[in-house]
C-alpha cells in the first residue's frame, strides 16, 4: 500500500516537474518572441494612432469582404486576442455576431505565423509544428497555408453567420439595426 502512495506522489510531482521544464524551454524560445511582438504591435498602434485604427475599423465594417476578411486580419495582427473583438463596437448590431465569428476564427488560423495574436492557445500550433518537424519537414509552409486558408474560411464563417442571423431574426420577429453609433454619438449607415 505504501508503495502505491509513493508512486502516486512521484507521478504527481513529476507532472509539475515536466510542466516546469516545458515552461523554462518556452522562456528561452517562444515567450521572448511573443513579448517582443506584443511590444512592436502596441508601438505600431501608438505610432499610427488609436483614432486612425478606430476610423479604419469603422469604414471596414461597411463591406462584407472587409468586415469578415480584412478587419479580423488587421485587428488580430494589431490588437491580438481578445482585443480584436473590441473592434466589433464599430459594427451595427446586425453584423456583430458575424464579426465575432470571423475574428474568433482568425485568432486560431494565424497562430503559426503570428504567435502574438493568440498566445493562450499557442500550444496547439506548437504541437502540430512539433509533429511536422519530427517528420523532417519545415513548419513554415504549413503555417502560411493555414493562414491563407484561414482568411478564406474567416469570410465564409462571417457570411454563414450573417445568413443564420437573418434566419433567426425572421424566426424570432426581431430586427437588428444596420446603423452603428460611434463614441461621438454620430450615426453611420452600414451596407
Automatic annotation (TrEMBL):
GO-annotated molecular function: transferase activity
One Pfam family this sequence matches: EII-GUT
Keyword Lyase part of the UniProt annotation: no
Transmembrane helix as UniProt keyword: yes
InterPro entries cross-referenced by the UniProt entry: PTS_IID_sorb
Keyword set, alphabetical order: Membrane, Transferase, Transmembrane, Transmembrane helix
Coiled coil, from the record: none
Spans traversing the lipid bilayer: 30-48, 68-88, 143-168
EC number from the UniProt entry: 2.7.1.198
Listed name of the protein: Glucitol/sorbitol-specific PTS transporter subunit IIC
Organism per entry: Cryobacterium breve
Amino acid at each position: 500500500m505504501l508503495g502505491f502512495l509513493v508512486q502516486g506522489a512521484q507521478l504527481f510531482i513529476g507532472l509539475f516537474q515536466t510542466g516546469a521544464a516545458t515552461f523554462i524551454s518556452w522562456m528561452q524560445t517562444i515567450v521572448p518572441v511573443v513579448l517582443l511582438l506584443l511590444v512592436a504591435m502596441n508601438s505600431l498602434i501608438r505610432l499610427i494612432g488609436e483614432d486612425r485604427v478606430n476610423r479604419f475599423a469603422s469604414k471596414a465594417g461597411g463591406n462584407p469582404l472587409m468586415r469578415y476578411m480584412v478587419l479580423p486580419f488587421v485587428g488580430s495582427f494589431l490588437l491580438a486576442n481578445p482585443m480584436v473583438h473590441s473592434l466589433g463596437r464599430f459594427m451595427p448590431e446586425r453584423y456583430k455576431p458575424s464579426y465575432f465569428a470571423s475574428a474568433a476564427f482568425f485568432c486560431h488560423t494565424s497562430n503559426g505565423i503570428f504567435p502574438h495574436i493568440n498566445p493562450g492557445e499557442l500550444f496547439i500550433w506548437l504541437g502540430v509544428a512539433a509533429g511536422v518537424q519530427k517528420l523532417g519537414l519545415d513548419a513554415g509552409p504549413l503555417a502560411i497555408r493555414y493562414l491563407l486558408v484561414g482568411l478564406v474560411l474567416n469570410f465564409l464563417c462571417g457570411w454563414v453567420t450573417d445568413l443564420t442571423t437573418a434566419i433567426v431574426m425572421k424566426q424570432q420577429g426581431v430586427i437588428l439595426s444596420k446603423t452603428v453609433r460611434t463614441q461621438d454619438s454620430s450615426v453611420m449607415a452600414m451596407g
